[in-house]
Amino acid sequence: MKRTIIIGDVHGCYEELCELIEKLRIDWVEDRLIFVGDLVDRGPEPIKVIQMLRALKAECTVGNHDERYLRYRKHMKRKAEDPSYVIPMQAPYGGRMAMFESLTEEDWAWLESLPIHIRIDENWVVIHAGLEPGLRVEKQDPGVVLHGRYIRKSTGRMERVLSNISASEACVWPELWDGRDNIIYGHMVTQTRMPVINLSPSGALCVGIDTGCCFGGALTAMILLEDGYSFTFQSVKARQQYEDDAAGYIAATTLR
User: 18-57 pLDDT, tens per residue?
Assistant: First the structure.
């Protein structure tokens, strides 16, 4: 039976990705393999992750960490042309400039080709982060799709960080998603380190599969079966905790 396999935020966790790929027993002729983005940062081997996805000809949406690298590279190119130009953003954090500088032109071309969303069929769409109510997936602001977590209830508009909004006025975006599409997303690390399934007001499913591998959780795949409705999950545990959750991303995911 043909499957569509969607894998959550890898964040450089190459060994866990290899283990998960082996565990999934992918049929490379029949199955479709999609990633939700955020391949770089946090974990130890993002270059190997990118090269693996390129070799497998996997599909992938761009994540906010991937997009940040692309944006910084554009500024670097401009500075090379004009040394007086001041880059208006920080360099890749955590001492990761060596990794940034090790990416090949082929790696960069592949990253630049990644879309904001991937439509699986008439029922399911893969994105990296979030959506606002009242707009079809194709009409969403790319910044929202890349970064969004929370919706301000009074306006229906997205807030990237919880500090911009009171807890009583905020909700996580799946609670107000009113589109017809079922959504598979990453970005928001689940507190339980297990996938989260929300039934939106429109009756659509929103399935979060970032189970925080880089924070010592797990790397998770959602396996959507050929009927377009049935799905299961497969996970592998992180070999170790590669980064502390100093910013509190896990605690901030659930408002209740």
Answer: 999 999 999 999 999 999 999 998 889 999 999 999 999 9
What is the model's pTM? 0.93
Q: Identify residue 82 by its one-letter amino acid code.
A: D
- CB-neighbour burial class of residue 178 (10 A; exposed 0-12, middle 13-18, buried 19+): middle
Paired residues of 97 in beta bridges? none
Instruction: Give the C-alpha separation, 96 to 28, whole Å.
Output: 33
Q: In angstroms, what is the C-alpha Rg of the chain?
A: 18
- Other beta carbons within 10 angstroms of residue 153's beta carbon come to 14
| Helix (H), strand (E) at residue 160 | none
Helix (H, G, I), strand (E, B) or coil at 101: helix
Q: What is the CB neighbour count within 10 angstroms for residue 70?
A: 13
Token pair listed for 193:
């380190």
Backbone angles phi, psi at 139, to 5 degrees: -100, 5
Which residue from 200, 160, 207 is spatially nearest to 36, judged by alpha carbons?
207
What Cα–Cα distance (Å) separates residue 140 from each residue in 35, 93, 196?
Answer: 20, 28, 22
